[in-house]
Amino acid sequence: MRYVSTRGEAPSVGFTDAVLGGLAPDGGLYVPEIWPTFTREEIAAFAGRPYAEVAAKVLGAFAGDEIPAAELRAMCDEAYATFSHAAVVPLVQIGPEQFIAELFHGPSLAFKDVAMQILARLYDHILGRQGRQQTILCATSGDTGGAAVEAFRGAKNVRVVAMFPEGRISEVQRRFMTTAEEKNIACVAVKGTFDDCQAILKDAFQDKALRQAVDLAAVNSINFARIAAQSVYYFTTAAALGAPGREVNFVVPSGNFGDAFAGYVALRMGLPVKRIVVATNSNDILARTFSTGRYARGAVLATLSPAMDIQSASNFERLYFETVQREPTETARAFEAFARAGAIDIPPGALAAMQSVFTGVAIGEDETVRTIVSTLNETGELIDPHTAVAVAALRHVDLDGPTVVLSTAHPAKFPEDVAKASGVTPALPRGTASLADRPERFDRLPGDAETIKAYVRAFAEA
Ligand SMILES: *Cc1c(COP(=O)(O)O)cnc(C)c1O
Questions:
Q1: Less packed terminus of the chain by CB within 10 Å, N or C?
Q2: Ligand 1 closest atom vs CA 257
Q3: What does the DSSP 8-state code read for residue 217?
Q4: Could you tell me if 99 and 405 are in contact, meaning their C-beta atoms sit under 8 angstroms apart?
């Protein structure tokens, strides 16, 4: 399987290079040259199978012959054994034909674990084979850092430096990063905002000398392996609900559009996905785009669902590429224009193709709070604010047939906001309860790129 850039100016690469490379050298995103597909019989056979088995089949279709099937299966077994629920991604019914898929049973209690756990094993495997060591630099507004630290701690060929804005993430989120004891992990509390951390990250990646000296890598959701890993739960949940005999709808709390795009990938691979509802908070760029056809940045507002406080959705470029019939010149033109002007108009044919699958719904803060309360009252389920945005969106759309809401974080990850809304303080699940007692280890640094780059170099070379 070869991977091509959405902008068409970079050579095609194999799966392992697409995984390690992240962004293509022409600024585009990698997508497979052709979408692998499963037959109806193969999809039907996924029903009730172990999650790791389905994951190995789906990821195997993307890896082709670059990773031996038995090794991939062993990596999937190990990755999903870290989840505290035997189903890995269990379904909970919340109404007639309405289900929640709980994606938060991984080690850091957020859906990012689902992809990060397998990504870490792929990295260590590929780097080990190449006799190479990399340093992952990551800027987090909360969940990505914890998922990356949990996934990569103890990895032989990877070091991780996780930067977070001091005082601006929840204590639970911070402790998932700072209580790791392994020496390949370093955490940095940066004096400044998340935007400052991102600017430092960008500076570090543009520093060729540093990049080469420490073999710098990134694990954000532009990495295609993360998308591929996220398409797996679309297959397992739809198969459990009767696909391919029945079409299934999904409602997805969205920020960078990685998770919702993974549903589109599953559709292209043959899964009968009927509609994907893209649920956003007041940072509604995606919701506006699917209704108006104009993709335009707005000001970023702080909300109760901070992992979705994003006003330009990196993975949207992949959908654009697909819906303009994979025309790379047009995709490059559009996203260069977006980078310059902050807004583009979607061509009518592409918009119609998007609207045939996606509906966007934006949900405000009051409705998010009310939905946490009503869901608890009506079903007994305590949901986190990100999931609440999606449950609220479900009530704004008319959908036929089975519908799955993706639940992206455990309520205990946002205990204060959930307690304030519902009056119930969510408890940390078994296994993470000791988080509050474990010693923390992190360095405090000024929000200055040169200082942080020197820190990264010293850590990588130690
Ligand atoms: C990252 C995240 C999201 C958004 O997912 P995207 O793939 O960026 O759209 C939603 N909810 C939670 C809890 C997250 O951590």
A1: C
A2: 9
A3: E
A4: yes
The reply to whether ligand 1 has any atom less than 6 angstroms from the CB of 112 is yes
Q: Give the count of beta carbons closer than 10 Å to the beta carbon of residue 366.
A: 8
CB 256 near ligand 1, within 6 Å? yes
List the one residue out of 359, 340, 191, 334 whose CA is nearest residue 273: 359
| Average pLDDT score over the chain | 95
H helices of 110-180, in order, are 112-130, 143-152, 171-178
Q: Which residues have CB under 8 Å from 5's CB, separation 6+?
A: 24, 25, 26, 28, 29, 30, 328
Torsion of CA 64, 65, 70, 72, to 10 degrees: -50
Dihedral-angle region of residue 154 (phi above 0 means left; psi in -120 to 50 means alpha; beta otherwise): left
Instruction: Measure the CA–CA gap between 422 and 369, rounded to whole angstroms.
Output: 8
What's residue 190's pLDDT? 96
Cβ(136)–Cβ(148) under 8 Å? yes
Q: Which two tokens stand for residue 109?
A: 């209690």
- Which atom of ligand 1 has the smallest separation from the CA of 386? 11
Using CA atoms, how far apart are residues 12 and 278, in angstroms rounded to an integer? 30
Among 38, 18, 48, 16, smallest CA distance to 30 is for 18
Q: Which fold has domain 91-109+224-422?
A: Rossmann fold (3.40.50)
Q: Give the C-alpha separation, 304 to 280, whole Å.
A: 12
Task: Tell me the catalytic residues.
Answer: 112
CA 112 to centroid of ligand 1, rounded, Å: 7
Residues 237 and 457: their CA atoms lie apart, in Å, by 43
- What DSSP designation does 23 have? B
The minimum-distance atom of ligand 1 relative to the CA of 256 is: 8
Residue segments in the chain with a per-residue pLDDT below the cut of 50: none
Query: Is the CB of residue 2 less than 8 Å from the CB of residue 30?
Result: no
DSSP line for 114-132: HHHHHHHHHHHHHHHHHT-
128: exposed, middle or buried (C-beta count within 10 Å: 0-12, 13-18, 19+)? middle
Q: What is the pLDDT of residues 358-414, one digit of tens each?
A: 999 999 999 999 999 999 999 999 999 999 999 999 999 999 999 999 999 999 999
Q: Please state the pTM of the whole predicted model.
A: 0.95
* Residue recorded with tokens 């007994």: 380
Question: How many whole angstroms separate alpha carbon 223 and alpha carbon 118?
Answer: 12
CA of 389 to the centre of ligand 1 (A): 12
